[in-house]
Give the backbone structure.
Amino acid sequence: QVRLQESGPGLVKPSQTLSLTCSVSGDSITNGGYYWTWIRQPPGKGLEWIGYTYFGGATFYNPSLESRLTISEDTPKNQFSLRLTSVTAADTAVYYCGREKYWSPYIQDWGQGTPVTVSS
Amino acid sequence: DIQLTQSPSTLSASVGDRVTITCRASDSLSSRLAWYQQKPGKPPKVLIYEASRLETGVSSRFSGSSSGTDFTLTITRLQPDDVATYHCQQYRRTPWTFGQGTKVEIK
């Protein structure tokens, strides 16, 4: 049974960088059968897919965030991370990490989510 | 990007009712659609994938179907525990996108 847990600061100032980590247990992020993904949900709104990492560090990003976004892996720690630069209030959201099957990439497993507020 | 339009936005029904939620896609999805249930303060939980396949462990009261670019989630014998927001998601073409959600309430 895979378990995903997000961690990171809950408050980020405008124009600064948001950094979050997803710790994975019960599976290896080097498992080539899965995408390791980030999703977010602004308060009271719908879900937005951010991007994923797979196959030992390859990535795919939502074009709407691509210019500010980096998703990376730390394989010894079995973690993957999100880094979003130049944040604004529009980046305030609950951020989830998740796991998608490569051959049918719906989000089968989710972390509990971590709320991030962008405010001075 | 593929747009997904869910209807209705809110649905109020009685315990025991059969309820239907629709998700219309702006392009062909070739059945690459999932449905999720999200309760307040919790992450989404997948119910249906590949438009009509029931995720392991999910109640058979939930079912999915499709006709062209229209997809439907049906809940039979609505229970108080089904109060939640339901989201559709397409994974036919990146970026994956979601519908805006349907909130299901009990009358």
Remarks:
- Residues 40 and 95 of chain A are 4 Å apart (CA to CA).
- Chain A touches chain B through 21 residues (CB under 8 Å).
